[in-house]
Amino acid sequence: MAAKSIKSLLVAVLSLFLVLVSTPGFAQEPDHETATGSHGAEEQKLDPAKIIMEHIKDAHEFHFFTAGNFHATAPLPVILYSKTKGLDIFSSSRFGHEGAETFNGYQLHEGKISSTDGAVVYDFSITKNVVQMILALTVLVLLMIGIAKKYKNGIGVTSAPKGWQNAVEPVITFVRDEVAKPNLGKKWVKYMPLLLTIFFFILINNLFGLLPGAANVTGNTAFTIVLGLVALVVILFSTNAHFWGHIFWPPGVPFLVKLILIPIELAGVLLIKPAALMIRLFANMVAGHIIILSFISLIFIFGAMAKVAGYGFSPISVLFTVFIYFIELLVAFIQAFIFTNLTAVFIGQSLEGGHDDINGHDDPIII
């Protein structure tokens, strides 16, 4: 009970911190007084959709909070190449806050860098998504190497597991017994490294994305597309002649129906299956972040109508934010599991032999 109370307190504190650091980002600076002075300082209209999209998109800097005219940011390296200017490397701080300035013939607008002379620009910059993926990969590698050393020294083999072994070992066992063996049969050992890498890499990026100021890596289409392509390559290299025979000439089907079924089956292998993996992860992770930011933005929407309404709705917004954070923690694990499980299902289907040869396992079931 004490552990659960501590976890609840941490989530509540994290949510309050998110609200506090997000307040300046949602609040708009007032305009200067009009020439007649009759209207006073008019506030700019709040645009929650724009603010939310700016928070979930990739960027060339980490933005933590804003206090007055002070912007707490961590600029990242910008690496550009164009035929007219050649290679340019500089800090994203050169563009100023929100990319308001032009530097060396380049300008930043809505997260995209373009050349003022209209030349084609190739952007190889180290964005916050890239930085966070490197950090997540570093944490994952160090964690797994540390656990592997313990097993090598006999801890967890001849004695009880210690530390992170207690958390990671049940997960590995779960992936083995509930994902690999049921879907891959006798060949499960061959694919376990891939499945475990996918699961833990997605999981750790999901969890990192819940930290205030962090990047929403798994809610980025580039990230999910690469994972989907990796799964597609593995699926294609796991296929056999019997699998392709059923794709290009389905047995027991009338000829005219085959003409319709063949392109559908081919599209299912090359397009639909990887697209299902990409879209499912992307949509679920983006949705959670949008909901959290929407609840926070409601404070400022009500506050724009009346300050009393803004202050009155703040506790409700914080409570809902805490609730969604709990849901997002659960979703982080669920989406890592679903992506890994579907990858195993699709690989298992590509391994299928004849009707009497199912590689020692039952037909995979897609959930």
Condensed summary:
By secondary structure, this protein is mostly helical. It has helices at 2-26, 48-56, 128-152, 165-184, 188-208, 221-237, 241-248, 255-305, 307-350, and strands at residues 61-67, 70-75, 77-82, 86-91, 102-103, 106-109, 112-115, 122-123. It is built from nine helices and eight strands.
Describe it:
There is one protein chain. The protein is mainly alpha-helical and 367 residues long. It has a domain at 128-350. Helix content is 60%, strand content 10%. Strands 4-3-8 form a 3-stranded antiparallel β-sheet, with no helix packed on it. It has a 3-stranded antiparallel β-sheet with strand order 5-6-7, with no helix packed on it. Strands 1-2 form a two-stranded antiparallel sheet. α5 packs antiparallel against α9. The longest helix is centred in the C-terminal third of the chain and has 51 residues, at 255-305. It is globular, with a radius of gyration of 26 Å. The chain starts with a helix and ends in a 17-residue tail after the last helix. Mean pLDDT is 81; it is low at 1-43 and 354-367.
Oligomer: single chain
What topology, given as strand order, has the largest sheet? 4-3-8
Radius of gyration: 26 Å
Strand segment tally: 8
Order of helices and strands: HHEEEEEEEEHHHHHHH
Number of helices: 9
| Strand content range | 5-15%
Question: How helical, in percent, are the residues?
Answer: 55-70%
Given as residue ranges, the uncertain stretches (5+ residues, pLDDT < 50) are: 1-43, 354-367
- Cα end-to-end separation: 34 Å
Mean pLDDT: 81
Overall 3D form: globular
- Structural class by helix and strand composition: mainly alpha
Q: What is the makeup of the main sheet? A: 3 strands, antiparallel
